[in-house]
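Q: What would this complex look like in 3D?
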Amino acid sequence: MSEIDLIRRARLEDTSAYEELVSRYYSKIYGLIYGMLSSREDAEDVTQEVFVKAWKALAHFREQASFYTWIYRIAINRAINFRKRRNRRKTVQFEEFDPDIKQAESYKEFSSKGSVLRKMNLSEFQKKMNDALLTLSDKHRAVVIMHDVQGLSHAEIAGIMGCSEGTARSRLFYARKRLQAELAEFE
Amino acid sequence: MMKKKDTPASGLDIAGLLALKAFERPGAERIEKNIQCTMQAVRAAHKRPSLHYFPDKSLGWMFAQPRYGIAALFVIFLGLHLMQRPMPAESVGSSVMSEPGLAMDLSAVTETNRAAPVIPPLPAGSRPAYSSLVKPVSFTE
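A: Here is my prediction, written as structure tokens for the whole assembly.
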């Protein structure tokens, strides 16, 4: 069934159609929120909030707009609000790396002789990377997660963030520069 | 025109390192469990609609079809107006007063065509307190 049909059925309060939409988008929304919060428990809670909020607000969704743009926008706003209203947990639990990581080209490159992952283990790298990400502002972190982790284009990011493509590019440039400074010890 | 570069000039490949973060993800079983938990929360919210979100669902049609929305608003305003200033229950015309509002000697009015004096007469032996500077005069002089 097409996405628009699922949305129309969900608007008529068909929860099974909405469950299909949740299944399609859960991993993407969870990945975005996890990247924003760097905490597994918080990401699970906020992802659930996002889908409940979207269900309740489905009547306001315009069919001309893209569903993923709409739900990504809800997710970013919810993640930002969550960080504002709640301090970070003292002990955060990170997500575990998928075993497939060892097949990835970038992993092979960084674990080669003299490179980053040669100097530290994967969990050490994970902690430093997540800490470095948390030094960025919410908007910069959202852009860098969407582009470099989730592979969204500048145009898609601009649509979600409600800014120009130029702004999305400059935020990405600044965020990478800041991360480079934070992770300088890896060089 | 020169295109602005996305990546800093030199140093660590941040984009490459960030790509590894994509592998920080839950397993399929946990995703499935989380989806079920999310749908439980959705169904609970569906059964128990919050007043805060009430307009979201019930007034969706109003935003989808603005002309009906405007008509509904007109009816609501008319209703509010009538609540404040209700229409008279009886038809407009002569009305019969059940209790007289002002005591009046009707016989005096009908016989003489003049209303009875409202000011009571002064008691005998008393004088009005005129100022000594004012000389009482008769208006008929």
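A: To summarize the key features: The longest helix of chain B spans residues 28-47. Chain B touches chain A through 39 residues (CB under 8 Å).
Q: Very helpful, thank you.
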